[in-house]
């Protein structure tokens, strides 16, 4: 079999979370986490997380429900400032930022109204593909 000569380039990505209360979950991501809503499809709403990353919340019949085995991580440039900012907006964290993963991950955790685990994280690993002009802040 011949090897293909064309390889797809994945330009963007969307992670989908399912809920029975679309308004409650969409309001959390739009109003509390302040993610811009870029699309409203009626039963689904899509929020922009980064230039190429999106988070969709849906209330579609027949889609899986439940939060086990799922966590969405927001990579931020300063976990401590993100923690203080969102805590002031009423987000209840399970604790303050903590260094994990052999001192390469600095993060804090909380849940959205549906019960999905969310993480604010800084990678502190020089091997990570940081945005242009930035590297690890702490080591």
UniProtKB/TrEMBL annotation:
Q: What is this protein called?
A: Glyoxalase
| Pfam family name, one | Glyoxalase
Query: What is the species of this protein?
Result: Falsiroseomonas bella
Q: What is the lineage of its organism?
A: Bacteria, Pseudomonadati, Pseudomonadota, Alphaproteobacteria, Acetobacterales
User: Where would I find the VOC domain in this sequence?
Assistant: 9-123
What the entry lists under InterPro entries is as follows:
Glyas_Bleomycin-R_OHBP_Dase, Glyas_Fos-R_dOase_dom, VOC_core
């Amino acid at each position: 079999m011949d090897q293909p000569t064309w390889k797809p380039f994945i330009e963007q990505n969307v992670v989908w979370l399912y809920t029975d209360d679309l308004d409650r979950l969409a309001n959390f991501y739009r109003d509390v986490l302040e993610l811009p809503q870029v699309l409203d499809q009626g039963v689904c709403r899509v929020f922009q997380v980064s230039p190429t990353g999106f988070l969709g919340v849906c209330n579609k019949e027949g889609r899986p429900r439940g939060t086990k085995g799922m966590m969405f991580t927001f990579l931020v440039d300063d976990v401590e400032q993100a923690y203080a900012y969102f805590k002031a907006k009423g987000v209840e964290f399970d604790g303050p930022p903590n260094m994990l993963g052999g001192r390469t991950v600095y993060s804090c955790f909380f849940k959205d109204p549906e019960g999905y685990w969310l993480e604010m994280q800084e990678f502190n690993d020089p091997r990570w593909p940081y945005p242009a002009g930035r590297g690890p802040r702490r080591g």
